[in-house]
Amino acid sequence: MVHFRRMRLSDLDRIYRDPEIRPLITTSYKGNSFAVIIEQEGDIIGGVSGYAVDNAAFVLTMVLKEVGEYSAYIDGLIRSLIHFLELDGLDLLLIKGDGDESLYSSIGFHKLHGTEKFLDKQKEQIQEAFQEGTIYWIDLRKFFAKHQK
Question: How far is CA 32 from the centre of its chain?
């Protein structure tokens, strides 16, 4: 059975001892950190971590061990993260794309073009978090409003 859940303090030792997933906890963050992990039959097989500033969350690390159905696990992980961040009262999630645009767009992410209204508040933080590459964003409240109809 696969579980997507928030990382607990008791998970730190197991994560640190596993070099494949260690980056989840060894990356330095500039705000309130968060982490969601994938647990399969008692083993932590991956996760996502980052930080939140004001009303925005920035994903900096996403790790998944070698498993079948990679896209399904990543999809579930991102959707779980969206759920937890929305419960925490955040409005915006930004993530650096890894080349799989179809995965992000199927969830509801948009490619950051630099003309979005929220950039007035978040531009400096986005530039600091993501030096280069394609950045995707999603409005967490609209994500849930869309799925409640």
Answer: 14
Separation between Cα atoms, residue 5 and residue 81, nearest integer Å = 8
**Total domain count, the chain:** 1
pTM: 0.86
Residue among 131, 137, 101 at smallest CA distance from 118: 137
Assess contact for 138 and 107: CB atoms under 8 A: yes
HSE at residue 13, side-chain half, CA atoms within 13 A, is: 1
pLDDT tens, 40-99?
A: 999 999 999 999 988 899 998 999 998 778 888 999 999 999 999 999 999 999 998 876
Give first-to-last CA distance, the chain, whole Å: 29
- CATH code, 21: 3.40.630.30
Domain hosting 36: range is 2-148
